[in-house]
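Example 9 (inverse folding). The structure is encoded as follows.
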């Protein structure tokens, strides 16, 4: 019985010491001096001039694809030979598919570059303003200082 009591006592002592040491370590850290910022990344991305330019270019490319499709309809409707119709359909289908794939790939690559650039600018501005942590606004339920407008001034 004494051995069980001694084992339980040692276990409780270890737990109490562990919690105490953890509390001491936390109280000595600089968590009290933390400055937490929050940023609305979607607002920064939406209002970015780079994104607006990219979207404008993307819309122009979509208009070009629409023109290609319209030309395909005209060419196919003017053709009477079924073999030529099938050949034209396949040609235009491949052409439009290739253009669309390249356009989407280019758009996504450029969007990723812009996103990476914006996040780098957020980190740089946060360091300048001495923030310990910056979190996305949509992940924060309470607290933090919204620095979106401060960063938006520097985003191009």
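The amino acid assigned to each position is listed next.
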């Amino acid at each position: 019985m004494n051995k069980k009591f001694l084992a339980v006592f040692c276990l409780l002592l270890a737990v109490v010491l562990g919690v105490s040491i953890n509390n001491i370590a936390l109280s000595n850290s600089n968590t009290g001096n933390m400055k937490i910022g929050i940023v609305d990344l979607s607002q920064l991305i939406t209002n970015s001039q780079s994104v607006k330019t990219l979207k404008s270019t993307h819309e122009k490319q979509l208009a070009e694809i629409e023109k290609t499709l319209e030309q395909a309809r005209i060419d196919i409707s003017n053709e009477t030979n079924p073999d030529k119709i099938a050949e034209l359909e396949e040609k235009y289908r491949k052409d439009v598919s290739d253009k669309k794939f390249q356009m989407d790939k280019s758009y996504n690559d450029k969007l990723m570059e812009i996103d990476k650039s914006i996040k780098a600018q957020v980190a740089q501005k946060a360091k300048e303003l001495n923030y310990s942590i910056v979190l996305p606004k949509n992940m924060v339920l309470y607290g933090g200082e919204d620095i979106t407008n401060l960063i938006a001034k520097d985003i191009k």
